[in-house]
Write a structure and sequence with these properties.
It contains 22 helices and 19 strands. The strands form five sheets. Strands 6-8-9-10-7-11 form a six-stranded mixed beta sheet. A five-stranded mixed beta sheet has the order 1-4-3-2-5, with helices on one face. Strands 16-12-13-19 form a four-stranded antiparallel beta sheet. 42% of the residues lie in helices and 14% in strands. Helix 16 (497-507) packs antiparallel against helix 18 (526-541) and helix 17 (509-518) crosses helix 19 (575-602). The protein is an alpha/beta fold. The longest helix has 28 residues, at 575-602. The two termini are 24 Å apart.
Length: 692
Amino acid sequence: MSEPTRGNRKSRPRQSPGVPGVPRRPRPLRQFAFWVVLFLVLLLSFQHWMNAKSNPEKITYTQFIREVDDHNIKELTFVEKEVRGELANPQDMTVGMTRKTVQHFKLVLPFEDPDLLQRVQDANPDVILSAERAQGNWFGYIFSGLPILLLLLVWLFIFRQMQGGGNRAFSFGKSRAKLLDGDRPKVTFLDVAGADEAKEELQEIVEFLRDPKKFQRLGGRIPKGALLLGPPGTGKTLLARAVAGEASVSFFSMSGSDFVEMFVGVGASRVRDLFEQGKKHAPCIIFIDEIDAVGRHRGAGLGGGHDEREQTLNQLLVEMDGFESNDGVILIAATNRPDVLDPALLRPGRFDRQIVVDMPDVRGREGILKVHSRNIPLAPNVDLRRIARGTPGFSGADLANLVNEAALLAARRGVEAVHNFDLEEAKDKVLMGPERKSRVVTEETRRMVAYHEAGHAIVAHNLEHADPVHKVTIVPRGRAGGVTFTLPENDRDEVSREWCIDSVTMAMGGRSAERLVLGRLGSGAQSDILQATKTVRRMVTRWGMSERLGPVAFGETEEQIFLGKEWGHKRDFSEATAQLIDEEVAKIIQECYQRAERILTEHMDQLHLLAKTLLERETVDGEELRMLLAGEPLPPPRAATATNGRVDEPEKAAEASPTEAPALPRPQMRPGTATANQGDAPPQAPPRPASS
């Protein structure tokens, strides 16, 4: 669930970070100062270059007296004890450690010699003598201090950039909240689908702001805060934007990471400034996205807590429900990690409402697809409900990506509308990646993959509690060489023991088919074995589905809140119990493996028939599988073939399933979502685990 595609936003004047909503004024003084500094730098560089070009050589007093006695002095200038001059004829001298030809020279007199002028005039009658008053070399002083000045300017620029570039160098304690105005396109609750309960909760807050007397006449008070909880991509931020579009009050938006700064105390200062701005614009709504960045449990972590974050959280707690009340200021926050939030933040009086935004069901997914396909031309026969049914476990963001990919695929084919074929192909691409057409597959590998996937499909077809087979393919996609895709008839919120046993039995079908038909075992069943082991271990240790061990949970999970994930499992059972668990897991898997072998042995003719069909057609969907096993003739392959940039028989192609395989299951799928069992994987990468 996310915002549909809209037109380009209007250009708005840049706003001052200190005063939200006030346009930022142009800064001609800054531009003038930049050109002045650049001119001075160029001028000083030129002066330094000229001085270096005409710089006289420094000689010794002995060399100077020798040139005086040799009648080789043309001009002398006295500046206190410094003497500068020019030789009548250039001479080779040792200057420092090198030999140079010297004409212009300078030296410092080591002592006062009252007879020096007379001696020079006697030996050089045509000499030109002059004297100058000593003056400060301000060009040299400025040039020597220029590097320090430049370093200060660079440091000041970096410091201002780190603090958001405010008008004042030390304005980093101000809030960075953005005040939404009426120039940007509005998102309303009509743009939100798949979260009806969350919309109702937030609509009530909006109505309270519009007409508070309606609720106050019965003694009700406005909620001080609402926390949006849910997995990533379910539309928490979109709901907040819809509140901003629906509410006729001021709306401040800010990210939780904007409070965190390198200086201790800055976050608390920004919290105070944020609520001060909210009080000035009351009634108003403040939205903090990803509040877990600042609202984590205090005192957690190795070696103590984080002082800056904890001070910021303390100030946030005080502002939400402290000694002073903030009437008219409603705080809405969003997070996908409610388990790491501080308990003081979650209590009533601060976040009065905790609104769960969960993964959409089939009806919600259909509504989300309709929202995102508003501006996309769809073919008349497009069935969005079918697409919604085939995408269990998809979030709103996933569905938005699916619709966009379908539009791109249709545009690439040069058609005028998006067909079912494009949506199915986009679903496969989102799940598993594009088809790997360039991969070279030997005939032996294709045969092994065909029997492996056929084994999954035949076992699943003959199991009572397994999900129906949606598609079987040996087309390589992503890192999988083939996929058997099952699809539940309805969204499943919980699983039964029969469904788990049938799912594990289906996972063993590919390995059983390889051993029965080919007489050998390959590595293509790696992900099947891994997923089956995980499922059975959960059955035994978590779900109490073992008759031998009974309804007992083993292994308490230890969660380290500072890591944001499970750190380990506490061993709360004996070695004997651990041995029983391992034996029970191995026993259930072995029984499922033998059960899969019995099913394939009884239906060996179906296994050969499906494998042969897969080698010929590469993909068989669920309806074709049922026709094939019932002995009915199959229709011609319904692959889309490009002709002059279009698809042959677009109506039929739209109604058909695409020939490419849907993908491996999505990570972190809930029970009851689609199941994919992977076949062979390329040698360079192990197979990805399949999920149930």
